Amino acid sequence: MKIVLIGYMGSGKTSVGKVLAEELHIPFRDLDFEIEKTEAKSIAEIFQEKGEIYFRKLENRTVEFLLSEKDDFVLATGGGTPCYANSLSLMLDSPDTLTVYLKTSITNLSNRLFREKENRPLISHLKSEPEMKEFIGIHLFERSHFYNQAGLIIDTKEDSPNTIAKRILEELRGER
Ligand code: S3P
Questions:
Q1: Which of 29, 32, 82, 147 would be 88's cystine partner, CB 3.0–4.6 Å?
Q2: Residues 99 and 152: beta-carbon distance below 8 Å
Q3: What are the tens digits of pLDDT across the range 33-67?
């Protein structure tokens, strides 16, 4: 089975995805990393030099390409991936694929992202924590409609990546 993790920036898609992949003995893939590899540029450089629309098209094409692969993997997407073009439908309609939304509170996201905003072009301009919190509140409200269509929704609470991965595995095994 392929597992696709979706959720806002800072929700732990990459760290949870790595643990999950290790537990399931399947490869871990990171969509942003795949895009950076293809373009030989950082996400921030792509946004700056080619613009967001270019990035969104590339993101959509990369999801399509990865999901068409035969092998299983755990995929960490970017925060905006399911919200543009037909990327969400591609995930939801992909055979033997489970889409998991890592649902995280605005306060937790804001605390984490204020420390890690530099390579994230959509939030790097935000100067203070209250500004960050307000931006995330509005942005998450706009995006939740997409995220909530995931096959499995995991409230990440304050849990560690290990615990979140364990909770996903329990759901997969029907233990919860
Ligand atoms: C984005 C999230 C980022 C990256 C890009 C745009 C978004 O990924 O794809 O900066 O639109 O939310 P992470 O969620 O891994 O930070």
A1: 82
A2: yes
A3: 999 999 999 999 999 999 999 999 999 999 999 99
Nearest CA residue ID for atom 8, ligand 1: 78
Give the nearest ligand 1 atom to 119 CA. 10
User: Angle at which helices 43-50 and 31-39 pack, to 10 degrees?
Assistant: 60
- Residue 166, classed as helix, strand or coil, is helix
Report helix angle 52-67 to 43-50, nearest 10: 130
Residue 35 CA, closest ligand 1 atom number: 9
Q: What is the DSSP string of 22-46?
A: HHHTS-EEEHHHHHHHHHTS-HHHH
Average pLDDT over residues 141-170: 97
Share of the chain above pLDDT 90, in %: 97
Using the mean position of ligand 1's atoms as its centre, give its distance from the Cα of residue 25 in Å. 26
Residue with the smallest CA separation from ligand 1 atom 15 is: 78
Place of tokens 């995805």: 17
Per-residue confidence band for 176, with pLDDT thresholds at 50, 70 and 90: low
Distances (CA, A) of 1 to 23, 58, 68, 137: 13, 24, 13, 33
